[in-house]
Amino acid sequence: MNDFKLPADEGSNTQDEPVMEQDAVTDREKLDGIAAQTVADLGTHDLRHVHAVVFERSTESGLHVSPGELVDAVGAAAREKDASFSVPASTDRDTD
């Protein structure tokens, strides 16, 4: 016979509340994440539009960032995305 019993208040194995964050995230890390996701969503073709969307998303998230922080975060995300899609230099081959 198994003596294991669930406590009365744990009748199911569902998660009914959010899990607490294990690591605190700084506002800058949140902004960097928003910028990276926005650049992934929209690309880098129209950075003015990307800046506007990052500003909107960060405001909706309750972040208060300076225009300089916004420009830095979007610029870093755009550079990272562009670097990951760099095309290797072509090699000249002799066709004789």
How would you describe this protein?
Residues 1-21 are annotated as: Disordered. This protein is mostly helical and 96 residues long. It has a domain at 27-81. Helix content is 50%, strand content 0%. It contains three helices and no strands. It starts with 26 loop residues before the first helix and ends in a 12-residue tail after the last helix.
Walk me through the topology.
Layout: H1 27-42, H2 47-60, H3 67-84
Helix pairs in contact: 1-2, 1-3, 2-3
Region (Disordered): 1-21
Descriptive key words:
96 residues, mainly alpha, 3 helices, 0% strand
Class computed from helices, strands and strand pairing: mainly alpha
* Terminal-residue CA separation: 84 Å
Low-pLDDT parts are: none
Give the DSSP E fraction (strand runs of 2 or more residues): under 5%
Order of helices and strands: HHH
Number of helices: 3
The number of strands is 0
Helix content bin: 40-55%
Biggest sheet character: none
* Mean pLDDT across all amino acids: 80
Radius of gyration: 23 Å
Overall 3D shape: elongated
Compact description:
The protein has 96 residues and is an all-alpha fold.
